[in-house]
């Protein structure tokens, strides 16, 4: 109780009373202390805001210590003003002591931190590091781009391999069947005509037997090229068996398909290769138009039956499937 009384007893002979005798002196002291007090309250707030805003701040606790140290300095100045009129010397003394302790603590820790703070990279070192990092980033982006282009190229190669017949570079069986499924659905949807053509090289076994398998391969490639040349860009051709091919003719009725098949047959028959190592051969063809009752299998079967007829009737000719 006595201690509280001592603390709050402002009736000591206040030395500040001497300032009251001169207004200009009083204003100088009170004005200076007030400004210092305001500044000393604003600085800790700014430091706290900085620490809260930057979670990457190194040694953030030293900023908070500074905030505390400056806060107590401000408190001693406000008591300097109060003590002009009231002598709260105990409170003033306690605050000064606390200011002293926190100042000492800040000073010791600051010296302790100094080597680490000095060893932090300076502006030039940071700039050099940034330039280095940016160069590395560019190199990484460039090699990423190269890698992506390589992946795209490889993916395209793989896709091509998955859908292409290696020897003739036409669509393979799986792909041409997939395309036929799509075209049947499209023709159904749009009510458009769709025909297909089955081609089979004649007596191909004899070609192999007489000229050898490699010559047979060359004849297959050359025949495939010849077929392709007769087709429109919108037609699809695939190799579905050893010497058997399937052509999809979108927007084509049976008459046009038949005429085209005849042209294809003739072109192969007349094929004159400058290369004598490629044996010439002929083909039999069966054409069929997709009916509303057809699905993929029945359409193929009808074209196959027409091809069988062409084979049975002497080969090197075209037969069309009945409606
Ligand atoms: N060179 C080569 N020959 C193949 C290939 N695929 C299948 N053949 C051959 O093609 C021949 C097909 O013979 P067949 O099914 O008897 O038919 P064909 O001799 O053409 O007789 P028809 O079709 O009745 O006119 C076989 O000798 C197969 O070995 C290939 O990729 N390359």
From TrEMBL:
Task: Tell me one GO molecular function of this protein.
Answer: diguanylate cyclase activity
Record keyword Amino-acid biosynthesis present: no
User: GO cellular-component terms in the record?
Assistant: plasma membrane
**SUPFAM superfamilies named in the record:** Nucleotide cyclase
- Which cofactors is this protein said to need? Mg(2+)
One Pfam annotation reads: ETR1_N
Coiled-coil blocks: 130-164
Which keywords belong to this entry?
Coiled coil, Membrane, Transmembrane, Transmembrane helix
Q: What class of enzyme is it?
A: transferase
Cite the GGDEF domain residue spans from the record: 192-323
A GO BP annotation: negative regulation of bacterial-type flagellum-dependent cell motility
> Which parts of the chain span the membrane according to its record?
26-47, 59-82, 88-114
EC number(s) recorded for this UniProt protein:
2.7.7.65
Q: Does the keyword Coiled coil apply?
A: yes
Q: Which reaction does it catalyse?
A: 2 GTP = 3',3'-c-di-GMP + 2 diphosphate
Under PANTHER family, the record lists: DIGUANYLATE CYCLASE DGCM-RELATED (PTHR45138:SF9), REGULATORY COMPONENTS OF SENSORY TRANSDUCTION SYSTEM (PTHR45138)
Question: By its UniProt entry, which NCBIfam families does this protein fall under?
Answer: GGDEF
* Name of this chain's protein: diguanylate cyclase
Recorded source organism is Rheinheimera lutimaris
